[in-house]
Amino acid sequence: MVGRYLDLKWPVTPLLPGEVRPPFPWRQFCERPPGREEWRRWEVLFPVPPHGLGLLAGRPSGIVVLDIDDPRVAERLHTKIHFTTPFTKTRRGFHFYFSAGQEEIPTTVLDLPGIGLVEVKGTGSLVPLPPTQHRKDPNFRYTWLLAPWDVSEIPPLPKFVLDAIREKQRLKELARAVGTVKFPKPGRKLTREALGEILAEVGAEAVKEISLGDRTAWRLKACPLCGKSKGNPWVMTDTGRLFDFRTTCPAAKEQGGLPLAAWLRELGREDLVENLEVEEGEEAPPHEVPAASVREARSLILEVLRGGGDLIVTVLPGVGKSRTTLEWLCREGPRPVVWSVPTLRLARELGEEARALTAEPVVVFEGRNARTCLKWEEVKRAHDLGYDSGEIICPTCPHNPKNAAFSEKCEFLRQFEGINRERGLFFASHKLACHLIKDFLRKAKCWILDEEPHGLVEVVSCPLDGLRTLRAIFREDSATMRLAEAVLKLGDELHRATNGKKLLEGRIYARPVEFGPWAGKKNLAEWLDLDLTELGPVIRDEITQVFKTYRKPALFRKGINLNAFRWLEEVVGQGQAYLVARKNPARPIELRRVVNPVPDKWRGRLVVLDATACSRVVERALKRPGMQILDIRVPLEVRTAWLRRSVSKTAVSQQKGQKTAIKALKEALKAIKAEKILVFCHQTIKSKVEKAVDQDGRRIVVSHHFGTDSRGTNEFESYDAVILLGLPVPSPGAFYDVALALGLSAEEWTDWLDLLARAEAWQEAHRIRPVRFSGKKVLVIAPRWPFQPWLGGPREVIEPQEVRGAQDLSTIILELWVAVFYFVWREIALLLGIGRKEEIPPLEVRAELWRRIEQAYPEKVRAFWEQVEILLKGIGNPFASPETSQEVPRNREAKGFLPPYKRSLKGTGNPLPQGQMGNSGNPKGVPPPYKEIFFSGRKWWPKLLARLRKAHPDLPLFEVQIRTPGGLQRTRGLGDIEAAQEFCWAIGLEINEDAWRVCDV
Question: What pTM does this model have?
Answer without folding.
Answer: 0.70
